[in-house]
Design brief:
The protein has 194 residues and is mainly beta. The chain has 1 helix and 10 strands. The protein has a single domain, classed as Pnp Oxidase, Chain A (Roll), CATH 2.30.110. The strands form 2 sheets. Strands 1, 2, 3, 4, 7, 8, 9 and 10 form an 8-stranded antiparallel sheet that branches.
Length: 194
């Protein structure tokens, strides 16, 4: 097969969306279409808004253990030890969605005044979320879906005069009916004709 520069893809724009994780009896309906590159949120999902210029990092990972035998100096097999699937992004907007995900708590309005309180528990409860990343390049759309996830890592907020506040979050997939997540695309480059 010859090299083909038209098959190189970038992600010049896109969006990250969140919803409550689906439950056994219903809840959020997972998307089954590829979307429009981040312009429109999937049904039931809300946008995190602006992501900083580093974009979004999607990391599938499989860790293995070698199976060594007496008769060979090299492994004869690798066994899957564990698997993971994560999405990491740094959000630039101060909003209900970003701050609640970052602090792991819910804003509660105090009385009738414009005052909200977010209590940081000494025994926080982790919230299950469903996360979708949409992006587009050269008219081709891509969608990554993690049906069930939790925030597994948070960066620090830096308060400066010359830089905006940013909220760095890593979402780690949880098992959902035997799967970590899935990808959707309308890019025909994934079809090799076989």
């Amino acid at each position: 097969m010859a090299n083909d520069a038209s098959k190189i893809r970038f992600a010049p724009n896109g969006a990250l969306f969140v919803a409550p994780a689906p439950t056994g009896g219903g809840g959020t309906t997972l998307p089954t279409t590829v979307g429009d590159g981040g312009t429109t949120a999937p049904s039931g999902y809300k946008s995190f808004g602006y992501v900083n210029e580093s974009g979004v990092t999607i990391t599938p990972q499989i860790n293995t253990d070698p199976v060594n035998v007496w008769q060979a100096a090299v492994p004869v097999l690798y066994n899957v030890k564990d698997a993971s699937f994560s999405i990491k992004a740094t959000f630039s907007e101060v909003s209900k969605i970003t701050t609640e995900a970052f602090f792991g708590a819910t804003w509660v309005q105090q009385g009738t005044a414009e005052l909200w309180k977010l209590d940081l528990s000494s025994s926080p409860e982790l919230t299950e979320l469903s996360v979708v990343v949409d992006w587009q390049d050269k008219g081709r759309n891509y969608r990554c879906v993690i049906p069930r996830a939790m925030v597994s890592d948070r960066g620090a907020i830096t308060l400066q005069r010359t830089a905006n506040q940013e909220f760095e979050l890593t979402f780690e997939a949880l098992d959902h009916q035997g799967a970590l997540g899935y990808m959707l695309t309308d890019d025909s480059n994934v079809d090799d004709g076989s």
